Each structure stands twice: as C-alpha cells, then as structure tokens.
Amino acid sequence: MTILTPPLIFPNMTSKISDAQPRSTLQADRGQLPRQVPAPSHEELEDLARQSRLLENCTPEEIITWAVERYYPQLTMATAFGPEGCVILSMLAKIQPRVYVFNLDTGYQFQETLDLRDRIAERYGIVVDYQRPELTVEQFERVHGGPLYKTSPDRCCAERKIKVLHRVARGFDAWMSGIRRDQSPHRAGTPIVGWDKKFGLVKVSPLANWTKKDVWKRITDENVPYNSLHDRGYPSIGCRPCTRAVLFGEDERAGRWSGTAKTECGLHTTDD
Ligand code: SF4
Fold first, then answer.
1. Which residue among 113, 134, 136, 149 is best mutated to probe the pocket of ligand 1, counting the most ligand atoms within 8 A of its Cβ?
2. pLDDT of residue 256
3. Closest by alpha carbon to 115, among 27, 228, 234, 216?
4. Are the beta carbons of 152 and 97 closer than 8 angstroms?
C-alpha cells in the first residue's frame, strides 16, 4: 500500500469526541453537535482529488484504513444492508468496529432487511443504529393523504431518507458508502474520495473499483451475512413498496422504482 501521510484536509477542524468515550455517548452527542466542516477551499478539493488518485490501486481494506486514520471518530457510514454494505461491515469489524454505522429506517423496509441487522450484530459485534424520520409511517401517510411513494416517490425519499441523512451528517466529517462504479452509468464516475456537497461531508467509496463478482466472492469466501431476498431474485433492495424482483437479463437495479423514471433515491446524486 502506498504510504499516505498528508496533512489534515481541514486543519481548523478538530474532533471534540475522544476515542475513549463509550459508543452510546457518541451516539447521544451526534444530534447536538453544530456543523463544523466549512466548505473546502480549492486547494483542499485538489488535495482530496489527489488522495483519490493515490487510493485508486489500493484494496478496500486499505482505503477503509486510510479513512479511519484520517477521519475517525468523525467518520460514519450509512448502510441499507446491501451486499456491499455487509462486506464493508465485515472489513470494519477488523479495522475499527467503533465507527458509527447507521441505517435510514424509512419504516418501509423489508423484514428480511431488518433481520439482517441482528445477524450482522451477532457475527461482527457491530450494532447498526437506526435513524428514523420524525413522523412514523402512519403519521406521514395521514399528513399526505396516503402513501407518498405512490404519487411522489422523490418527495417520499427526500422526507424519509435525505432529510434524515442531513440530520445525521451534522457532527461528522466523512461518510462511507458501498457504491460501485459498475452499478449504473450514473455511478460510473464515482471517485474513491471526494467532496459530497449535498451533505457537506467527505465521501469515501472503498468498493468503487470492485465488481459485483468481487463483492459476492468475498461474501462466499468469508460467509458474510447477506439479505436472504438476494436468493429470491432481488439483486438490489430498497423499500418494500419500491422494490421488485428482476427478470433474467434485466439490469441489477431494474427492480427499483420499476415503471417510473426514478433510478436513485438521491443519496448518491448531486443537486447540480
Ligand atoms: Fe419512499 Fe420508496 Fe423512497 Fe422508500 S424508496 S423512501 S418508500 S419512495
């Protein structure tokens, strides 16, 4: 691995949370911390791009190690318990299991997805925290006169996912995602490390260079827990009402918001 010992990207940004603090304290503090990270300067953006290039030939474990060394404990990860997220969790368990990992629990997830949270905790000792919208599904549907995913899925995702991630992002400097470049044309240009303007965080994608085959090889080789729906024709799993099994030969994300023009929930897209 290339030795990367750059100066901090944001030298005015210091962690207020000690590594020795218990995890429960870390979680309780998250919602109360003011946003600390200023928008990066041109030089800082260039530094991120340089780091990303240097990390291109590194393994996911090396990339995660780099991210932990540079940002922990101000590093977080969102997971929907997809195969990529489960693989990253298996790596984090060996590198730094105290990284704060959360799931955006919209209230519409499959039971199989929720069950996987327990299996991950048993296997790796990592308890993925649920982060939920302010309104329950019942309250939300009452306010909107029914399920918003039927009439305006973009607004539904904005309320039940994006808004929640904005809330969680406060107090962190960087987040990791499991997206891969080969998942869709939209994700083809994903850098290993970049500035996520939407959430005001550095974004690290340790599996950007991996293929679906790489991910499943790791799952098979190490018996990593995965969502049982994958064995029933669901290569990509989101909320229950917006996910269907795919047919032979279809794109792996064809079952997401099927029948609409929507292809992303907005977590991994930019607004400009
Ligand atoms: Fe709503 Fe569907 Fe988006 Fe889930 S995936 S937040 S149900 S629109």
1. 149
2. 82
3. 228
4. no
